[in-house]
Write a structure and sequence with these properties.
DMT family transporter; single chain; globular; MFS_trans_sf; about 150 residues; transmembrane; mainly alpha
């Protein structure tokens, strides 16, 4: 796949995450945050199991043979889902989503810059650094627009 295709797919995945946050926020208000998170992971696990069984090509390593620290990535989705289910009904989907993107961008830049977690090193540039205040301004503007004008 081309880089442009990957970027477009990432944008679509981001849109899907915002839809998930909006739906889960409403569900969490009705049945509880943890039950909503449990449903998300249960359905996701079932669908992924089917995909693994029928579409996964053989890989040189298994979940039992990779470095154990790489399995920790599975834990990071839990706080994300719980925070989003809790935050969306209170601050709205847009504010919660931009806040998450700001956190992702900042951590992504650190991971790239230092090559953490065995990722390729991509140096910070003024272009990358300039993106942070842009997102902070976006977050502030969207949050401010939540207030009712009188």
């Amino acid at each position: 796949m081309t880089e442009l295709t990957m970027i477009i797919l990432a944008i679509v995945a981001g849109a899907a995450l915002s839809m998930q946050a909006a739906v889960n926020g409403q569900l969490g208000e009705k049945v509880g945050v943890l039950k909503s998170a449990f449903l998300t992971f249960s359905v996701g696990a079932a669908i992924t199991a089917v995909l693994v069984l029928f579409l996964q090509t053989p890989q040189p390593q298994t979940l039992l043979t990779v470095p154990k620290w790489q399995l920790a990535g599975a834990l990071f989705g839990v706080p994300y889902i719980i925070v989003m289910v809790t935050a969306v009904p209170r601050v709205g989907t847009a504010v919660a989503t931009v806040a998450v993107i700001l956190g992702q961008l900042a951590m992504g830049m650190l991971i790239d810059n230092f090559g953490w977690l065995d990722n390729p090193q991509i140096a910070l540039s003024w272009h990358r650094i300039a993106a942070i205040p842009c997102l902070i301004v976006a977050l502030a503007l969207i949050y401010r627009s939540n207030r009712k004008t009188e």
